[in-house]
Amino acid sequence: MYQDPVMQASIKKVEAARAQNMKLDPRRFSAEEKEALLKTYHPDYREEQFAPLAVGPNKGQKVPLELKALLEGRPRLLDAQVDLSQSEYEADVLIIGGGGAGCSAAIEANNNGASVLLVTKLRVGDANTMMAEGGIQAADKPNDSPAQHFLDAYGGGHFAAQKDLLKKLVSEAPEAIQWLSNLGVEFDKAPDGTMITTHGGGTSRKRMHAAKDYSGAEIMRTLRDEVLNRETIRVVDFTSAVELIKDEAGRCCGAVLMNMETRELMVARARTVVLATGGAGRLHYQGFPTSNHYGATADGLILGYRAGARLMYPDTLQYHPTGAAFPAQIYGALVTEKVRSVGAMLVNANGEVFMNPLETRDVTAASIIRECTDRGNGIDTPEGKAVWLDTPMIEAKLGPGSIEKRIPAMMRMFAKHGIDIRVEPILVYPTLHYQNGGLKITVDGQTDVENLYAAGEVVGGIHGRNRLMGNSLLDIIVFGRNAGLNASKKAKSVQPGTATLSAMFAFEAERADAGLNGGIPSPQLLPDYVRHAHTTMAEG
Amino acid sequence: MENMVTVYLFGKKYEVPDSLTIMEAMEYSGYKLVRGCGCRNGFCGACATIYRISGDRELKACLACSTRVENNMYVATLPFFPLVKERYDIEQVKPTEQIMMQLYPEIYACVGCNACTKACTQGLSVMQYIAYAQRGEYEKCAELSFDCVMCGVCSSRCPAGISHPQVAMLARRLNGKYVAPECEHLNERVREVQEGAFESLIEDLMGKPLEEIQALYNNREIEK
């Protein structure tokens, strides 16, 4: 129930126009309109929010201010003593990160005979994968093909994707779905086994596979269960990596770890290392709320960068067009794109449909921001402006019960706050959702640093400058498996030398040359949401 | 403007705005969370919490990230609960009753108290899905347990020591792998990809000049 009289009055307009609105099939924006929208309204184009890096392999290239502070920040280990000749953990393959990419890598490395150490700073499965709701793309229907999938993703990413990576993504998509099915993931299927697929923003074929609107959760809990079934995968939770270790030949061969609770430092040695640390939503770029989980603080970008790995497109972020804008308790939480896939349209304060609801995410976000700013058609909420996502349309189109069947998580999320999305529309505004850019990799999953692999959201280049819905769950599976396989293959022939922190000290020298004294502790590890209202005593 | 309420975090009294979730109330009070905080939006089950409103006899359970504070709320978080997770080989197991008897025999000691259902933070019929698991009806168990976030509150209330979320996890995997119908068009597509059926199509796209691929993209037909 909405209590605010202005919201109530606006809902009346939305309700009055619903029957007419539902008949509309709004035309798509032209290429020129899209470009103009993005340049004027997309947060990636706010020049003052970016600055060039002063150090490291991407020196001179612009990144978000919040990321710059961490990439140029002060390595935490500079203030600690750690004996690299002793190691608490040893494994063939060290995987840093326990989300979908890390777990996929662990399973494939283990299938290939490697002993695996998987460290994660929260619990295994605490990851953006768990929160991906809408689905996973794969061109497996007769009217579709991996080439069509390539075209959609390449165009949706503004023709900037690293083509060999994108080719791998779309070509291995059907096998990724098959692999997950064989692990027991429950995809939505018709009684004859046909996959129930829908559109996502920017898709030209209905290739979005889902598990209700718990798609990521269903994939993540299954991968986690499989990881925990393996005796030779050792999972160490509440343990972050704070610096990568290289041998004297410059090959990555481990990491210095920190127990998140006791802050004890430990050394992990391995033949090869996979970074699968995920995204950066909790850095709250430009003050945006985020749909990301608590640990999304760009740690892998920092660790990889300091070790000498180049970043690709670190200046491009994805703002999911439909973050929850009301009530405050769920501000920024993801409202899955599937809500639009199954029939809800975007409607402004006057009850007008202002765009086709299935444009790509960057264009949709920009269009919503335009509606809420220059056009003055937003609805006031305690946190700012918003537009309606008219969910009751779904039941009007698909019949009673369809919301509970197709998007139960959304129904539950709003019901907890007294809003019944079957009969009331919901308020949405863009939320920081995904890091399009990240570490540059080869098609084998290796970064610029020998024996340092990367997979998942920490990687950049697969999606170009904008990612389509359903290509991220796909990416973590395809490239997670790929990294695990190649890291374990490589591990068979590698004999690491002496462990050193030479990369960190070289980076520190570069920082000093650039006049960067001090700096914030880096990587960040967790966001700080504590209200600092009182004077507190330092620990120790 | 802010309306303040009294909450007792682990028995200690704090004043917090009534608009906050329990998790936000902890942060407002000065806690920096490491445990008991994950997705912050009701999907991961990291923040299982037990509470009682002063004067109320009933113990309630919730997720701290998606529950608003109430006045005189006594809160204890349950960031970890020692569930039993048995190892098994998904390729070797079969979707029969035997596998539950072998891995999770305690489900047959269920006394029917329904405490699990009453405690479920997702409002699921937990005892009923355990009953389906007992009978080897994995499809029904999977369907009824699908929204489980594995927070473990049900198990913390169970006199029979059942690890309900793990039982349901096994049931869903058995259902997904062995009971759900095979997908023929998927298997066919995987075969086609492996035979290289799309290789030249994609290579051809990759080799096109920018203007040409832009034109293809901008004019592509979109399935209705």
Descriptors for this entry?
heterodimer; A: alpha/beta; Flavocytochrome C3, Chain A, domain 1; five-stranded antiparallel β-sheet; 17 helices; B: 224 residues; alpha+beta; Ubiquitin-like (UB roll); 12% strand; flat
Describe this structure in words.
- The complex is a heterodimer of chains A (540) and B (224).
- Chain A is built from 17 helices and 21 strands.
- Chain A has 540 residues and is an alpha/beta fold.
- Chain A folds into two domains: 5-41 and 318-432, Succinate dehydrogenase/fumarate reductase flavoprotein, catalytic domain (Flavocytochrome C3, Chain A, domain 1); 75-316 and 436-491, FAD/NAD(P)-binding domain.
- In chain A, the strands form six sheets. In chain A, strands 4, 5, 9, 10, 11, 12 and 20 form a seven-stranded mixed beta sheet that branches.
- The relative contact order of chain A is 0.20.
- The model of chain A has no long low-confidence stretch (mean pLDDT 96).
- With 224 residues, chain B is an alpha+beta fold.
- Chain B is built from ten helices and five strands.
- Chain B has a five-stranded mixed beta sheet, covered by helices on one side.
- In chain B, strand 1 and strand 2 (12-17) form a beta hairpin.
- In chain B, helix 4 (126-134) runs antiparallel to helix 5, helix 4 crosses helix 7 and helix 5 (138-145) packs across helix 7 (164-179).
- Chains A and B meet through helix 6, helix 7, helix 8, helix 9 and helix 15 of A and helix 1, helix 7, helix 8, helix 9 and helix 10 of B.
